[in-house]
Amino acid sequence: MPGQHSELLQRxxxxxxxxxxxxxxxxxxxxxLERRIAKLxxxxxxxxxxxxxxxxxKTHQLxxxxxxxxxxxxxxxxxxxxxxxxxxxxxxAEMFGQPLQGIAWxxxxxxxxxxxxxxxxxxxxxxxxxVVVSVRQLTSEPGVILLLHDVTESHQLEQTANxxxxxxxxxxxxxxxxxxxxxxxxxALLYTSHLKRPALKEDGRIRIADxxxxxxxxxxxxVNDMLRFARGGDSTVINEIDLNALLDALQQTxxxxxxxxxxxxxxxxxxxxxxxSGNYEAILGMLLNLATNALQVATSTPVLDVGLTVxxxxxxxxxxxxxxxxxAEQQARIFDPFYTxxxxxxxxxxxxxxSVVEAHHGEIRVDSKPGEGACFTIxxxxxxxxxxxxxxxxxxxxxxxxxxGAFPPGFDSxxxxx
Length: 418
Hints:
The model is unreliable at 1-6 and 385-418 (pLDDT under 50). This protein has 3 domains: 72-150, PAS domain (Beta-Lactamase); 152-231, no CATH class; 233-384 and 412-418, Heat Shock Protein 90 (2-Layer Sandwich), CATH 3.30.565. The strands form 3 sheets. The protein has a 5-stranded antiparallel sheet. It is built from 10 helices and 12 strands. α1 packs antiparallel against α10, α4 (152-194) runs antiparallel to α5 and α7 (280-297) runs antiparallel to α9. The protein has helices at residues 2-71, 90-96, 105-112, 152-194, 202-231, 243-261, 280-297, 328-331, 349-359, 395-403; strands at residues 75-79, 85-88, 123-124, 130-137, 144-150, 239-242, 264-267, 275-278, 303-310, 314-321, 363-368, 374-381. The protein starts with a helix and ends in a 15-residue tail after the last helix.
């Protein structure tokens, strides 16, 4: 037994030795683990402080951005994907009142906007305020921000300056008008005195009456030209104009002159119904003015062609005649008020035409060579109503994004026209 016990003890000694080695290694591994845990703890603390610092900086940037937006002299509106208002600054609340949150932008605009407005002049609101709306596309997500610029004061100053210019021009015109009206008026008075002759037959009375009427019409045209020029184009009332109906009215109004002069008139029309926005009376008067003057300057049988080109955005009229044409040096002054080469001209025909076209934010030009007639081309926009875009996002959503740690990236000429 003793021998066996000794042998048994010797067999068990190596395992006991290994256990002692394991026990001695544990403290060393435990220290390494503690050091790794401490290192990770420090790294996590640094990362947390860095993240908190970034969050604080972004929150500060957002707060500063909100303060800047609230302090802006213009309005800022943020719309969601279906055009509803999600955020706006105090200027917008002042312009449109409350509440605005969640309401469709077009609905808000409709309840404050005056009808029949021109896009280039901005949006006229009730109370006399006028704003220009700009659109900025968001880059972080679908949507737009609307920027509203108050141009009330500058628009009023521009209107005042234009009115003063026209009044000054009218002062210059008064002497010319006195002379121009005196001639047909004196003729009318003379013809009137002839009507008193007892021996005058009925056909003679009719001829004199026709001459008196012609002089009255001439004076009426002068006065109307002066009034249109003074009003600056008559574009304050905007209508939806049927293009073919406008051209029919032009034809009907010119028919008496055509029959009297034997002139030929060709008017191009649209095969389909086409409408555009503008002041009906002013545009019809402008076309009549151009056509009438073209008929008056013709040295032979007048031939007048009214052309038409329709596009998605514009309407283009052309009024071409077979008159004597316009010299190049006269074309430079052709649209100036009171410039005329006609003895009986007021010098307002083409000035009024240009005034009407410019009031509609269109263009008018003339192409002519002496002896080859003249062609006036008028281009008018089809729409005079402001077009507002609408889409998405808001400052509240931006704050939420920041809190989640994802800050997004921010008529007178050498062609003798009146």
